Amino acid sequence: MTYMRPNPPAPSEACHAIVIGAGLGGLASAMRLGAKGWRVTVIDRLDRPGGRGSSITQGGHRFDLGPTIVTVPQGLRELWAACGRDFDSDVTLRPMEPFYEIRFPDGETFTARQDDAAMQAEVARISPRDVAGYNAFLKDSEARYWFGFEDLGRRSMHRFGDLLKVLPKFAMLRADRSVYAHAAGRVKDEHLRFALSFHPLFIGGDPFNVTSMYILVSHLEKAFGVHYAMGGVQAIAAAMARVVEAQGGEVLHDTEVDEILTEGGRASGVRLASGEVMRAAIVVSNADAGHTYSRLLRNLPRKRWTDARLNRSRWSMGLYVWYFGTQGTSGMWKDVGHHSIVVGPRYRDHIKDIFIRGKLADDMSLYVHRPSVTDPSVAPEGGDTFYALSPVPHLGFGGVDWAEEEPRYRAKMARMLEERLIPGFQDRITESLVFTPETFRDRYLSPFGAGFSIEPRILQSAYFRPHNVSEEVPGLYLAGAGTHPGAGLPGVVGTAEVLGTLVPDAPRRASMPDLPLPDLPMAAE
Ligand SMILES: Cc1cc2nc3c(=O)[nH]c(=O)nc-3n(C[C@H](O)[C@H](O)[C@H](O)COP(=O)(O)OP(=O)(O)OC[C@H]3O[C@@H](n4cnc5c(N)ncnc54)[C@H](O)[C@@H]3O)c2cc1C
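Above: the input record for the complex with flavin-adenine dinucleotide. Below: its predicted structure, written as tokens.
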């Protein structure tokens, strides 16, 4: 598969938009801009589209590096429809049944499914007295979905007035409480409290501190299901890149942006690491918001997103991910499905180690991905492809020498996998690849090697997150995990939807050389 279009036609500057980063948020933004008539150039330093949603193939095993769970598929369908296309013609989604299994250290399990009766029975099996509380939790989750996802999540929150308007509703929904506190208020059993509160970890949030608005994820799963994209999320990214090209845009790879340029007080293009300058009427950065401001705008005096403020911000956790392929195992571990969560001995205290103390703990909790049970294309015949992910402190805390620590940490992870999930797997490994927070820093240019950019705490969400229209310079827009509404596939596709409401249509008379640049809004302080 080749992603590069050699010798693209030089687009006219007045209707030319540059998108830095071909992550899912950047590609979705490019599609939105293409639908508005902009000629888009997407630029990414990696060799393929998808960013964290890209893949690496080794010895016939395709390792989908990041996102595995596709929720809210209608977000993708709406994006495609906005471009006059049909998502389901381009990508095949498989509903997961069950969604995932959680294995607790005391031998208890919790299997999450879409079916209501099955879920009631699962809760009743574990803790009969919690069924009513569980049902109340689901109602709470739905209420937060309508407000947090369908209302707030789909509009720009860059004006202070927007924030003031929603504060009473935030107060009414007790957004000041954490996800865990909300779950604990509804159910007594600790297994269930875990099962209802761990979801923020999938978008980089500490369940004991992240706003309880995020309990909306339970409703998302129940109402819209959990899906897997055949070919991995890489297949979604590749399909997005094809739409951008069909709209007349181009997606450049192995190309790094060194600086966002300004002229007359507005964004005017980019300088590449090679020194080449590319000009455009608007620039969208899908690079991490921290990288965008501290590195790409390093020569611009900044009012809000100064280096000091970025350093003070709370960043999401880092990730240690071990990707491995096995041979001769396709009939083995029949009770291990596509998604498993293997819970370690501690919850609250372990989360504190990761997010507050910044200490690499001896114990761990794992998310394990085994796509080969759904998608034969991920492994050679008879083999399996896995990844095991453990949340760890980000690099900002210091103190972990990953070069030294990595083999030890992998050995501990292997022991846990042997004992709790896939006995005997180590003898059958044929391919192996490890990502530490240092890989996230170096591959995605992610500040502090964070897995999911800025942590989604209440004072770092909505108005308080880097805005989708830059506070610093007109003509610059931001999309992706570090902006509103936030991380996760539905989140970053949402950032592009919001961006689409802020960027004007491309000027029509694009071929006229003296066409004035369009008036562009800038976020109010
Ligand atoms: C291991 C893991 C598992 C996850 N699991 C899930 C899941 O199951 N479901 C879910 O919904 N979400 C999941 N997520 C979260 C989700 O993957 C991310 O939030 C989302 O993909 C981030 O997209 P993004 O658009 O912000 O950009 P990114 O994916 O971060 O892409 C940004 C791109 O910009 C490029 N770039 C940066 N700087 C420059 C520069 N100067 N010049 C050129 N290019 C540059 C980078 O190379 C990168 O390709 C997971 C994330 C990880 C890491």
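Notes for the reader.
Residues 1-11, 509-515 have pLDDT under 50 and may be disordered.
The pocket of flavin-adenine dinucleotide is lined by residues 20-26, 43-46, 51-53, 66-69, 202, 256-257, 286-287, 291, 319, 321, 389, 444-445, 451-452, 480-481, 487-489, 492 (CB under 6 Å).
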